Amino acid sequence: VALPSAAGRVGGDLECHVLHAPYLPPSPTSTVALSTAGNMIDNWFNRRGHPQGSARATVHSVRRSIGSARERLRPFLPKRWMFLSEVSKMTVSAPYFTRANAPSPITDVHLVVCVHGLEGHSDDLSALRNFLQVALPDQPLVFLMAHCIEDRTFASFQSMGKWLAEEVLSFIMSSDITCSHMSFVGHSLGNIAIRSALSMPAMQGYLDILHTYLSLAGPHLGTVYAGSLVGTGMWLIQKYTKSVSLLELSMRDNSDPRKTILYELSLKPGLALFRHVLLVSCHQDQYVPFHSARIEVSPLAGNDDMGGAQQEMVHNILFPLLADTCQTELRVFNVVHQFQNTDVDVLVGRAGHVALLDSELCLEMMVQTSLFRFFQTGSKPSEELSHSLAAASAGQQQ
Fold it and tell me: Taking the model in full, what pTM does it have?
């Protein structure tokens, strides 16, 4: 895994390469694990008459091969990149699942609302939730795994936004909690439901406490310029299921692109309401176009009405972030997966889409190295991230 140094305030890129390897790279924690494993295997070898230290020699040989492979890869990386295994300090200092003192009663909580994608389940984002809880054991995080749109993701985005806003309000009232901060995490279609919910009357009393918005492969500009194979498949599904959401994602719900739901949603307050906006994209994801997840103008956009509408949507969504009074920080992440097998899911682009949910290696790496800072309250994630990466980079140079 390699990470670059901190990016700029708006439009900066953090690119995360996830190398799925069948071994654990050497680090302060894995060194202890390898040493312990060496002792245990040595005892097993000794009881069977094998020379002492043979297992330990094998372990050290594996570590040397990993180190040599890392050095062969280094010349091909940008100068400021580093290997996660070379960062000497773990991002989390507290032991897992332990606490020195009994937890104090929670009065003001940080509510994190997680919303799944098309035909998804409320537990789809449970892995990300677990990694955030482990990374921030002392933060008053309370998670709402939204289930209001389960089995109803073919409905209109206006309906899904209404249901989501009502579920958030109902959860707060029934749990008898006081929210000091509120964050949203969405995957795929769930991101449009989140943005739609922010304009609903039920959410108006909570807009001033919005903290972080994490978008995982969100089709913010629709699926207009998706690949021909995926586009044809979505068209067939939409015709068979009479899905309103897929029709709205393709921006074919109105003959005038500027009167579609997605275009009208781009005119409403959205990203500028949050303190931190994190857009995660993957170029191997063919379900959600790369430019749509990053809120960028597609290179395929022409000079026709649809191309002009797409450019205006990008302007409508991002321009409020450039205002002098806006305190929102935008960061863009690009995740690159190295899939071991080339199966149908990889060929059609589904693997890159669902890997942001299913790849625990990817989720843990993103949370432990960067994302957890944006769910902390009472701190400045940008400065912490810059100092951490700068220190790690200096250690690499030494």
Answer: 0.72
